[in-house]
Amino acid sequence: MAIVKNINPNETNLAVPVRFICPICKASKELKMSKNIVEKTDQLITVSIPKYKICDHHFQAFVDKHFKVRGYQRVDFEFSDYENKPDYYIENQKKEKVMLERREAAPEKQEMTLEEIYEEFWEFIDEDNPEFREFVINDKRRG
Q1: Where are the beta strands (DSSP E) in 1-143?
Q2: Tens digit of pLDDT for each residue in 9-58?
Q3: pLDDT of residue 2
Q4: Are residues 24 and 68 in the same domain?
Q5: Which of 2-11, 71-80, 88-97, 131-140 has the highest mean pLDDT?
Q6: Which candidate in 72, 79, 116, 119 could, as Cys together with 112 as Cys, close a disulfide (CB 3.0–4.6 Å)?
Q7: What are the CA-CA distances from residue 80 to residues 17, 58, 100 (Å)?
Q8: Structure confidence at residue 1 (pLDDT)
Q9: Is 73 inside a domain boundary?
Q10: How far apart are the C-alpha atoms of 139 and 121, rounded to whole Å?
């Protein structure tokens, strides 16, 4: 069996969507797999799904030559990848995760009106700005 690492499915238009389901929490997501992977392997290929690709779990999937998932395996132990990565990489990963959680939890925001924009940023808006002229004239905060 050939070991195929880090193939970017977007490098080729020969990508097949495959739905993976976490064996632990049952979260699912469709990921694209390159057809080149199948050409370089035997009957079954083992696909490692890292944490945060689909959910908070790391697991493995077994995919056949027809891109059908034949089974899953939980990962009991995982060496930390953080040891070899610079601090800024770790911090960026943490920030991205927090931003994603906030985005998913936050309700959709409506567009702000000109008045709301003015109230939020009035001290940064130039007095000669034609869009906010009416607000500037009537603003008692401006001297």
Answers
A1: 15-21, 28-34, 44-49, 59-64, 69-74
A2: 445 558 899 999 999 999 999 999 888 877 777 788 899 998 889 988 89
A3: 45
A4: yes
A5: 131-140
A6: 116
A7: 29, 12, 22
A8: 44
A9: yes
A10: 13
Q: Note down the domain range covering 30.
A: 1-77
Rounded CA separation 36/106 (Å): 39
- pLDDT at 80 > cutoff 70: no
90-98 CB contacts, 8 Å cutoff, 24+ apart: 97/52
Nearest to 121 by CA among 136, 102, 140: 136
Residue ending a domain, among 77, 97, 132, is: 77
Owner of token pair 């020969």: 14
Domain end, chosen from 77, 100, 125, is at 77
Residue 3 lies in a domain: yes
Cα separation of 33 and 41, whole Å? Answer: 13
**Which CB contacts under 8 angstroms, 24+ apart, belong to 27-36?**
27/54, 27/55, 28/54, 29/53, 29/54, 33/9, 33/63, 33/67, 34/7, 34/8, 34/9, 36/4, 36/7, 36/12
